[in-house]
Model the fold of this input.
Amino acid sequence: MNKVKAGIIGATGYAGVELVRLLTSHPYAEIAAVSSVSYDGKKLSEVYPNLKKIADHELENADAVIEKCDVIFASLPHGLSEPLAEQCLAKGKLLIDLGADFRMYDEEAYSAWYKRPYSHPELHKYAKYCLPELYRDDVKKAKIIGNPGCYPTSVALACAPALKNGLVKTEGIIIDSKSGVTGAGRNPTQGTHYPDTNEAFSAYKAGEHRHTPEIEQTLSDIAGSEVKITFVPHLLPVNRGIESTVYLNLCDGVTKEQVVEAYEKAYADELFVRMEPLGSYANIKNVRMSNYCDISLHFDMRNNRLIVCSVIDNMVKGAAGQAIQNMNIYFGYDEGTGLMMAPQEF
Amino acid sequence: MNKVKAGIIGATGYAGVELVRLLTSHPYAEIAAVSSVSYDGKKLSEVYPNLKKIADHELENADAVIEKCDVIFASLPHGLSEPLAEQCLAKGKLLIDLGADFRMYDEEAYSAWYKRPYSHPELHKYAKYCLPELYRDDVKKAKIIGNPGCYPTSVALACAPALKNGLVKTEGIIIDSKSGVTGAGRNPTQGTHYPDTNEAFSAYKAGEHRHTPEIEQTLSDIAGSEVKITFVPHLLPVNRGIESTVYLNLCDGVTKEQVVEAYEKAYADELFVRMEPLGSYANIKNVRMSNYCDISLHFDMRNNRLIVCSVIDNMVKGAAGQAIQNMNIYFGYDEGTGLMMAPQEF
Amino acid sequence: MNKVKAGIIGATGYAGVELVRLLTSHPYAEIAAVSSVSYDGKKLSEVYPNLKKIADHELENADAVIEKCDVIFASLPHGLSEPLAEQCLAKGKLLIDLGADFRMYDEEAYSAWYKRPYSHPELHKYAKYCLPELYRDDVKKAKIIGNPGCYPTSVALACAPALKNGLVKTEGIIIDSKSGVTGAGRNPTQGTHYPDTNEAFSAYKAGEHRHTPEIEQTLSDIAGSEVKITFVPHLLPVNRGIESTVYLNLCDGVTKEQVVEAYEKAYADELFVRMEPLGSYANIKNVRMSNYCDISLHFDMRNNRLIVCSVIDNMVKGAAGQAIQNMNIYFGYDEGTGLMMAPQEF
Amino acid sequence: MNKVKAGIIGATGYAGVELVRLLTSHPYAEIAAVSSVSYDGKKLSEVYPNLKKIADHELENADAVIEKCDVIFASLPHGLSEPLAEQCLAKGKLLIDLGADFRMYDEEAYSAWYKRPYSHPELHKYAKYCLPELYRDDVKKAKIIGNPGCYPTSVALACAPALKNGLVKTEGIIIDSKSGVTGAGRNPTQGTHYPDTNEAFSAYKAGEHRHTPEIEQTLSDIAGSEVKITFVPHLLPVNRGIESTVYLNLCDGVTKEQVVEAYEKAYADELFVRMEPLGSYANIKNVRMSNYCDISLHFDMRNNRLIVCSVIDNMVKGAAGQAIQNMNIYFGYDEGTGLMMAPQEF
Done:
């Protein structure tokens, strides 16, 4: 079997290099080209010495990547993927975009939060928002895959069964998320300088984070009516992982058993979603270096409230792993191909 | 001026040794005796080598501490402070209890959450719950001081101005708190074993934590009507610090300005509460090793919601520092005596 | 091809569970049985929730493991592997012992440091000390494989080319090593309690660590004359990784170039040893979750001294990964089978 | 009593802000002015929010600081302190320089390692290298105080009693040091970006660190003959603290008892040096946030070697605390004034 030629644009960013790491173990894909604006001409393993003898590819430019590859993963700041998409479409190549440009179906919502209009509005009809567990069928229909954001992945999987089954109200949803520092990217800043981040903890962008409209798009779609959320992310002094604690108001008369059953049923056949036994808590340490999402359910019946804790590795299920999962589906491989490694236990 | 003789029962626990550390710098108090069930006969500095040449006191038993001291700090598991209180009262000595036994005014609420009745119900009329910023006048009236819990301190200070001024509704209050590992105490467990805790994060006791009724007692008292909360704590991989993110529903028509003004006014004269400028976030790193509580205000006006972030050092303002603050008030010293050290910046 | 049936005795210890994690990705081995004294009857994934849906094996006893498997990995405190070895030998099954019992060729050295004689001295003639890069040929000759200790692996690979080529003196070798906390095992202790370990650092067992004779055995063998070392380990506040900084006295007239050449040549064909370019430093972060050993060379020519820095993942190349590498060699698989995953970059 | 007016040039660097933090608790000094090139015009507490309500001083320029203050602390990159010294001398003000410019008595050694000649060679006769425990008498004689470097402080105190008493040889001294990340300063770099530093460890500048000649100057002076060392620093993933493990060759016939006695005697009256009991290890966690140096002695008698472990808080005893200790001596205050706080226990 011929391997699919995979290329990564933005390969020295954190999501980019995670794609490299994961693809080096993929049996049906080979990394055919990688690019980086900042390190053009260098070897990838000079930037990431962990990849020495493993991914010594020379960093080229984006055009070369598109030329040489069948599937192009782009991991770029928002606004930069639309022109790439145009090139990929023209050459009949699949773009899996890990940025924000192709996640929203509503340009107005996109531009309200990202403060720019689409540069190529005509392309968006070819794009699908592909969170496989919720929109698996859309993957094969896409020419451009909008790969979900990290926080939205953890939140959508946490809420979907309850909303889809009408077990919780669409009002009053509160999401308190915490992300490891890799979520802030590779660029050194004062806020991610070790002595500033270590032994520190705070919220940021409370009620203002750009993942808000993406979360609302998905939850509204699942619920079948408009959902507005309050979303507050926090910076967690760990390298990897996102934990989202979601507060949902149970509909009148809904029992714990109904909720548990709905979640168990929704995820029974999902390769990458694991329900915690009641009384256990989803912990980021159990999903590190893997594509799993672990979910635990908790009840505050004094207030008729469901509390869902959901954890992912922000760099794997929240970015590169999910992108490869989408690639697998698109090309007809088993969904877990190259992604079944056991999570790091410590 | 004669120094007050201070004693610590449970001096080798984390709150106990923090009391020792802070009292060694107090100009008007001297540590006259310390006790520890586990290390009776040893020197304190053998258990805590950081205290070598500083607090080489021999660990005695509780009776000796009560005998020798004017003020007794007790830092013990719940249920053990009531008998001590009886002894202290009998000898006319002040007990500052860092445990849970004297925090609740309602025995029913206490026994519902702590699963035991009071052993000495008659003592509780001498006890006051002393969170100085909210109940300063009660401190001098107390013969037994119920020192607030760590989470409740961070939450009560976060909510008080909004509730007291009727700016937020009493329904739908959600509190998402995160605590450093010292909050779990000194006893080694699997859950606090370094490789299990490092690079890990999860909720625990969601909706079930024993600080819930203490928080509800205070918020109800401030609001003037019953308040029920959903409270979910999380274990944070840092040594010190609590961050509470509190979600409150604004009353109709309430503006940001009104909220900001209410908080600024409430805490203008408070030595240990600092309001962050708008746009900044309260961060545990700014209060470590100090008695400060930093508070920041955020608004999600799309959902008419106030988000308050509040941080303390769980071992200082959340335990030992606040206890000394209460001691200072009780004995008529300046409230900040021995507590004005600048927080650790890194 | 039939998969080899692998069993793990002591599967809930850190090295044991790491074997499980790695073997779940091995194409030619299957985990046929696992045992644990502490958790007999439980599922492995109840003890390690990261393994849910991946390794839900029930924990049995050691006899069952030996009965059902072709190769038995034992990860036990010293003194417990000799009786197991007897059983395995009797049944013609390969024992790969990750403990200390079969690492020494000299019983006297073993008993001097481990304070016990061999219980089964007659078994030791079937045992080989198998550090593949140095003793590859011995692996196939062994019936009992003594898998090297973590520190000795990092040190032997750091020193071998210099000693073998007579570039450094055998006197005055000083080894300053630092190990992540998983090296201390899974059992919670005061010294590995998160608040005691985090933001802490110290040496331990200076000049007294039991890996000393194992290191000396290998260095002496390589040098062809007795080598005595000073070895000081330190506890490093990270989960995984060992760094050894080794100080060696250059023989008169030896040049940098000779040293570099000797190392490059020694490891040119080694799958799992990577030489850093001159000027770079071996860093534990580049080998985490992998079987690599990275080595960097530094020179203090003012003192005619070679400084070698060597890093491994203590749980992989320092334990479970090397054990699988030995299994691969023994059974004639490619040496890197199941071990070629790229190291974690963050 | 009039307070001494203290000024800090470079107040927003890590050593600078640590001076601020410590001086706010000093009973006989007041911070009269602070400067920062990067933040001129801002408030110090805007840069360091932990100092809000505590040190809200406006950042001025260096001239203003010299003008307004009696003692000027400078914490600047090397090469910038000589012109300041000229100004201070001209105005009769004491300069305590935390940089490298006034630590070396030998210009040749300085320029060999710092790659620049002195710009003001004539000033150096007024300067003294002031490590109080070794050169207390020099403090009062200085007009310019060269405050010791962090690594040299930990190493000199570790070696002095052994060298001074002729118990160890001057050859073959090896120093393996590990420093917390604050040692790398406040400026964000790739190497100190949280995900690059966390769970990482490596050596750097092996045999090339600029603290080498400073260490050799002191050890040679103590030994009374030239001492050359091999010095290898490592970056430790903690905020604060330096641990130095020093390997020394015992002179023939020297006993453990002699060594222990020499250290006990040397430091018996020192306020800030604490000897660990035999069998205990100096740990950075026991000195954080304090001016203490803890020292432990270990023996490898198989190799006739003394191993000394020494720990300090790199920002306190290794920088700001020692500078204040020097100020106290110079002005005739008790040496520990403002520095007697107990170390952070967790």
